[in-house]
Amino acid sequence: MIGRIWPIAIGIVTDSIKRKVVYVVLVFAGFLALAIPSLPNYGLGVESAVFREVALALAFVTALVVSLSLAANRVPGEVERRTVYNVVAKGVSRWEYLVGTWTGVFLVSGGAIAAFAVIEQVVAVITYGDPMWRLWEGALAIWLEMGVISAFAVAVSSRTGPVVVVTASLAALFAGHSRSTLLGGEGALALKPFTISLDSFNVVNPVAHGSGVPGVYVLSMLMVFVGLSAACLIVGSLVFSRRDL
Amino acid sequence: MDDYAEAAVLIANARKTYRPVVGAVHRDAVSDVSISVDRGAIHGLLGPNGAGKTTTLKMLLGLVRPTAGTFRILGEDSTRPAGRRRVGFMPEQPYFPQHLTAAHALKLYAQLAGVPRGEIGSRTSALLERVGLAGRDKTTLLTFSRGMLQRLGIAQALINEPEVVILDEPASGLDPVGQRDVRNLMLELRDSGVTVLLSSHQLSEVEAVCDQVSILNAGRVAVEGDLDDLLNVEGRSSVRAKVPGDTLPPPVAALAGSVAVSGGLWVFSVADKDVRAAVDGIDDAGGRTLAVAPMRDSLEDYFARMLAETAGEADER
Prior knowledge:
The structure holds 2 protein chains of 2 kinds. By secondary structure, chain A is mainly alpha-helical. Helices cover 76% and strands 0% of the residues of chain A. Chain A is built from 10 helices and no strands. In chain A, α3 (44-81) runs parallel beside α6 (135-157) and α6 crosses α7. Chain B is α/β, with parallel strands linked by helices. Chain B folds into 2 domains: 3-229, P-loop containing nucleotide triphosphate hydrolases (Rossmann fold); 235-296, Alpha-Beta Plaits, CATH 3.30.70. Chain B has 11 helices and 14 strands. In chain B, the strands form 3 sheets. In chain B, strands 6-7-8-3-9-10 form a 6-stranded mixed sheet, sandwiched between helices. A 4-stranded antiparallel sheet of chain B has the order 2-1-4-5. Chain B has a 4-stranded antiparallel sheet with strand order 12-13-11-14. In chain B, α3 (102-112) packs across α4 and α4 (117-130) packs across α5. Chains A and B meet through α1 and α4 of A and α3 of B.
């Protein structure tokens, strides 16, 4: 099983490197460098907190662009170009193919986020003389959230094309972070147990302004990540297994 | 041993119905196809466009969900992934991730097929050489021509040393030398005990290598059997002879049919019971009989005639 999932994942990583996905990271790193002079000039502590917020936001956008561009195109592209035939005919289960695809996207987004975090640290050391290690906690939360989003995108892509996948994923991302706004403060709150929230991955406050993310909270984030990702991939696999290629 | 265990490939009562949008008429891409491929044989799958060949192969390989039917390869249910692990498949016009090199692509498919890590390198080199791509292992597939991708497609189908190989139009896009190489490769595979199921439009290719054929038309098997049995014209023999003069001797001409002549070489058919009389007639006229063999249709003629015959039956259905 792992012997079939892993080569698919590594194939995506290799392909991403050759397609120079790293350029996305460099572009957003450039935005970060450009943003520094425009940060409000408060006292030193406040200014570095604002920098951390901006850095996390740009890391999030970088990871989202990388994850969605890979997850939305991979399965529809392979089905359209029929490269999936060679894989499925080799005795690879369709769920193994989907999980391998997701694993590859997850690894690439992890690499992009890690690269961005390193750039953030270098900028932080140069500008503020502080490596800001807490940014890695934010990077982990972003990576886990991208894992859920890319699992959702891969699941949707098992049946539809890239445009629908990107639209649906952005809608899910918006809805996942807007539970309180969408449900309002009164009667609709009864629906709360039926809605899925991605707010668990929002650690901007403890990373930018507080004293970091507690270990127990990281554990609970991991559980939410595993549960939501698995649910998306199970649904995607069921849909994909019924599809004619 | 029952048919399920004995045949290398067994397809029984395969059917695929596409149910498009609500209100549209259901369409049977495959109505009722049953095929049995003997172990160690090369079996040709023929048919006009839209006959259901590719859909049948896709159902066999789990790429398309069958509406009905049984699909076995080497006795195992091939619609399940585990049933396809001893199979090599080359789709029509194979495509690959274009940013990989030839060696990386073969390595990927070897890993997916469960080839032991230590054997991947040697198998990759050997196969690239076997399909005429020696020295191209580090070339990016983006720069490969159609024919080179076709050759790589054959290599990926063989990377797991399969016992059954399924080839969909393997010679498509290849130059004449490449087509000959593919024919020789199929014959080599058969000689080493591998079963080959070949779907092709190239009748000369099928006639040259296949032991058995199934001809599909309108989603059904119109004809199935040994190629020799199908093409040999029962009760007639073909005679090749050198005869002096511009005409056949009258006793021979009275017996001969389908006469053709070129440069004093005559080719004609006679009823089996008249072969002796025809040979004697040629001898008496001072001629020489070069060969007498069972009369055989060309596959092209047989195919065209069979399609014309079954077209009427399909219309009646």
